[in-house]
Amino acid sequence: MTTEKLAEFQCFLQMYDKGIVSAETVLEKMGVKYANELPKIKKEEKRWIREQLKFKKLHKDAIIPKYQTEGASGFDFHALVEGNDDLTRKVIVDPKDQVIIRTGLACSIPYGYEIQVRPKSGLSFKHKLTITNTPGTIDSDYTPPNEIKIIIYNLGDWPYVIENGQRIAQGVFCPVIQANIVEIEEISDEDVNRNRGGGFGSTGIK
Asked: 151-181: string of b/e by CB count within 10 Å (b at 16+)?
């Protein structure tokens, strides 16, 4: 195999690993007949495109997040509650009040991505807990040793107790596109023509 051919194969393998090309394409480039391998290939292609998220424990009891199901888009953050005066590891969220919950984690997020922090549906529906700034944003330059913390708000009428290690929120790993922000002196005819003819709230609810 020539050096050029080897380099080409390596390039296609890297693209396959990132989910850019299919396994069939890679095998075709290698001159392999893939008809007999097709069922196996189709099963493999359930893989997700994965970038590395590097979590660092800032406390020995912190819990590294994980996806709870194969098809989950969000991974779970766990509460880190240290001992209170009464030696319990719990935090009470009073009605119509909020608390900041530690995770004990720092994270290295790849440039061009963010983590969105969202409420867990079960906590929201059953206990009326949400996240005050939902979705919270963890930027790629919020780097270690900055700790990830989550603002929990109790919309309900009863206190809610958060225990150490409890799953309290979910993180969704998302790409970010930055805009090229410019100032203009005049609004173009094209923008004027795209005006929908009404301002804030003009589309109604029905």
From this structure: bbbbebeeebebebebbbbbbebeeeeeeee
92 and 58, same domain (yes or no): yes
Which tens digit of pLDDT belongs to each residue from 127-173? Answer: 999 999 999 999 999 999 999 999 999 999 999 999 999 999 999 99
Spatial distance between the Cα atoms of 70 and 138, rounded to a whole number of angstroms: 24
The residue among 142, 117, 147 whose CA lies nearest residue 132 is 117
C-beta contacts of 128-132 below 8 A and 24+ residues apart: 128/154, 128/155, 128/156, 129/93, 129/153, 129/154, 129/155, 129/156, 129/160, 130/155, 131/169, 132/98
Residue among 152, 139, 136, 67 at smallest CA distance from 102: 152
Domain identity same for 34 and 66? no
**Co-location of 86 and 126 in the same domain:** yes
H helices within 111-201, ranges in order? 121-127, 189-193
Using CA atoms, how far apart are residues 64 and 169, in angstroms rounded to an integer? Answer: 13
Give me 62's structure tokens: 């912190």
